[in-house]
Specification:
The complex is a heterodimer. The radius of gyration of chain A is 27 Å and the shape is elongated. By secondary structure, chain A is an alpha+beta fold. Chain B is an alpha/beta fold. Classes of the chains: A alpha+beta, B alpha/beta.
Amino acid sequence: MSEMVYVIVDETTYKAKEGSLLIDLLIKENIKVPYFCYHESLGADGNCRMCMVEIEGQKRPQIACDTLIKSGMKVRSKGENIQKVRTDILELELINHPVDCPICDQAGECSLQDFYMDYGLHNAKVTIADKVKHSKHVDLGSNVMLDQERCVLCARCTRFTDKITHTHELGIIGRGDDAKVSTMPGRKLSNPYAMNVVDLCPVGALTSKDFRFSQRVWFLQTANSICHGCAKGCNIYIDHNKIKYQDDVIYRFRPRRNDAVNGFFICDEGRLSYKELQENRQEEIILHDNIITEDEALEQIKNLIQEFKNNTIITIDANLYNEEIDAIVAFAKKIDAKVYSPLEIYMDEAFGDDMLKSSNRAANAKKIQNSNIRTETPAKTGLLINFNHPQKFEADETINFATHKGKQASLTLPVAVYSENSGTLTNEDGLIQTCQKAVFKNNPTPTIIEYLIRLSS
Amino acid sequence: MRECKIVSRKFDIKNSHTLEVARLHDGYRTLQKLQEYAPTEIIQIIKDANLRGKGGGGAGAGEKWELMPQNSDKLSFLAVNCDESEPGTFKDRQIITKDPHLLIEGILITCYAIKAHHAYIYIRGEYKQYQDILQFAINEAYEAGLLKECDITIHRGAGAYICGEKSALLESMEGKRGHPRLKPKQKEPEWFFGNPTLVNNVETIASVPFIVQNGADAYREYGTQKSPGTLLFAMSGHVEKPGVYEAEFGTSMMEYIKYYGGGIKNGKKLKALIPGGVSCGVLTAAECENLTLDYESLRGIGSSLGTGGMILMDEDTNMVEVLKNILEFYHEESCGQCTPCREGTGWSDKLVGKILEGNATKEDIDKLLDIANTMNGKTICVFAPAVSSVIVSFIKKFRDEFEDRV
């Protein structure tokens, strides 16, 4: 069954695995085909009937998601007939769909809108008064809001809770045009991956309580990044927007497909971790409760390093980029300081599971382990230069390079978080992945490397 | 008119549902004979008899049995479809109330042939009182030691029409929503929790004992070449004596109605007839004139024999109202899985409602045909195509009645 064969789609020949799904080939080769219910992570369900194609030798149009590749198969994905079939089915899909795109959060990234532009554009034959009414604000739990009227009943969300999380919270109740997605009475959608249903939903039926009404999606810019919530290294999109004269703001994280790491999904905790990047941030340089300038601070650091020669240690947060860790290690060598990054503090057995969440909450612990850095807690020292490690260490004098407020130190300097900087991370499987800089601030917080360059000059 | 009673032989006997009466009238006789045959020989007999499924589709039963593996590590199951929900159809309930032991006997033979040791009878939820009679008979059979080799369990449905579709039936039996499954790519049995399973209608299974007892040729004595045997045909609607009367395939439709039904109610004229449950396209009285009751003849005029449950309508019937009634049913019963069916049944029901109220335009009639066209051949199961053919047949044959209302 796994033999490679040739098939012809719209006069072009393609190579594909025999017995694989035709729709996978169409998606891979960017051949336009509309679909709601099919999803590569959930398999074929065949309910939306949108992915119709013509197959030579078959009397009727067939759905591509339930057609297996056969050698020599001839497929037509466009043409008058197939266009008509898709238009007709889309029309049925739309007869009970509310016309509330202007207030719908999905607008701009909605499959139904896109398909309407591609295949619909027909004059409505039903009046709004004829439409079936359902509930428009159902709080499913886990930050997921359901609008039953917008739902196209593709069952992606219910299949997600059945096949992926095996938690079975969602189901479809009712028959015919009264069918609707729902939870069991008295139960809520509640699993650590619940918010993925919002991404899976092709229309505006499931929206995120956390994101909805905060931004129109066409204003958002997107950067590719890696979640720093644990050592798994799930690939994400950072969606952010910088309004003129204001600082760049992150509005959401979305999973970015990477079959080698996270597939299509991320956990809810990782998804919501964008908030931490914008809250309680260290803004000023503080020396014993006094705000000082960067020049004064750098001078102070140089003096302290001189004063505590041979009595200085450096601690590194295991969430820093590979490049930052390398730079710190090089700097440590120069000033003859020992480097520590105790990893015990990052372990969280309650967090880990067998899906995507790792008990190791440090995004770059592997790099620390690979870098000849001590991972035990250091003994009391004269001068401690801490690069954002969360643990409390004992020292006569402490210099803290901190992203967030909250730690006592003689001298505290603010540093950029990962979204304000670019770099690479080594995940727990040793895979090196890149994070793009997403956030551009009017007054950028220096990165660790920028400080180190200034200290070395 | 040759009267022939194969399945309904004991229907008129008092207390025919009890084991005692069944035994008095040759009940369970075939079981003694069964050991003389290998399971595959039984299948061959059924194939030779060309027993066709009596649930509506009319596919060959023997061919279906043959798909069951004879040597498999997995358990095999038999699921008897007693979800009889097709409006106009009420024959299976006659079997389970009048001669449940015939069904049990048939189940035992079938299970022997397909090497199954557990049979489920999927009964529609509304049939509670009939289920009790069937359960009584099963209990009797257990007590008499007849069910040592094979268990029989009644599974009660929750009242969804679509669960009469074999794959939806199995989904329902597995505890899921009754949604039809995607069709397999090659010929294979059905699957119940991943185990090979045969799904047959009650009447099909109840026909098995006669065939095994008397041989394939005895069965083929009745009916036509392509549709051998008998069917529990039924009549309802505007007929003097509605009911279930067994007849052989190939019987003249009008003669059957006259002989068993006593003609149209109150001596009126026949206007239209739905031949085998509402999912079969409607026929005009003229079309019925020379029809015979078999699969081929009805297919020949673009309808189908279905379950053989005929609905008769006299000259005073308003066809728009009839279509509205049928579409209301479909609107209620569409499982909601596929888009064309889910939305199409509701929309067409509302449109016919509009026509009935006199608020529609001529375009609405064409719109109906348009929706019917979209529903046809684009869904997982045959529910939507059936609705489509019903709409088309009504509008095509009685268009003037629809136009009178716009």
